[in-house]
Amino acid sequence: MNIGNIEFGPRPLFLAPMEDVTDASFRYICKKFGADMVYTEFVSSDALVRDVPKSLAKFTIYDYERPIGIQIYGNIPDAMVDSAVKVERACPDVIDINFGCPVKKIAGRGAGSGMMREPDKMVEITRRVVEAVHTPVTVKTRLGWDNDSKIIVELAERLQDAGIAALTIHGRTRAQMYKGEADWSLIGAVKNNPRMHIPIIGNGDIRTPQDAKNAFDRYGVDAIMIGRASFGHPWIFSEIRHYLDTGEELPPMSVADRVALAKDHLAKSIEIKGERRGVFEMRRHLACYFKGLENFKETRLKLVTLTDIEELNKTLDFVGEHWQRENTDV
Length: 330
Prior knowledge:
With 330 residues, the chain is of the alpha/beta class. The chain has helices spanning 24-32, 45-49, 53-57, 77-88, 104-107, 119-132, 152-161, 184-191, 209-219, 236-246, 255-273, 275-286, 297-303, 309-326, and strands at residues 2-3, 6-7, 13-15, 38-39, 43-44, 68-73, 94-99, 137-142, 166-170, 200-203, 223-226.
């Protein structure tokens, strides 16, 4: 499978862009576990046009992350074009357009999956962005706005005709948000449409290696994108890859290995962001690495409140020493 000049091996695994999750330190961790492609947090075109520093900082990328995509969203064609041109200066491997985010503050004002109600405008924005940049442009979207307007099969053809290099489809409508089950049958319908020739990437409810294998085998997608299941569990990429290659499951990650992972992630966060911000923004990840441990409430509270690096590392060492003995099978 190729996206532009980027060559992937068989059945590639992508990390989905997620706000406040897929920062550079988390992308680093996911790459270590075998993610074939990663994406930055999505960036507002309006903010990029106004040179908002926090938004500009989101597309600082590092060579070890490649291939990497920068994702933008918005509903004003000129702003989307201007922001795509600006993003291209950061030299991503892919510029991705977010037509899939369902949260109210984005979709409610017509951006993200809100664009599903204006397919003509969606196609116009896509065409203009493709024409404005030299970097491959891809799109991530949903099945439709609601159950009565699942337009993805026809829309996929139109987006392809607008010049995109690949299409990612989340198997829910905007109205579903993240509820219910993802409908992979329509993702498969797009992939098996004889008019489609670009790669189709499936997204939604990939939680286990078996889910991933089923997506490839049953629906024929070219790649899969993993989002929420990677949060607190970035080793899911290695678990899936091992299962796809061997048909066997990896043993569960030990508590000691999770501690080593948490320390590595913390160190990279501090290296990139500095001590204060690096520690603060790691809190959302630290406790999640130890889901399932019994009698963990007090220690979890420490992990999400401590600000001193030495104390954090001591607490992580305590987790490794105490819970490895008590929970060898967790």
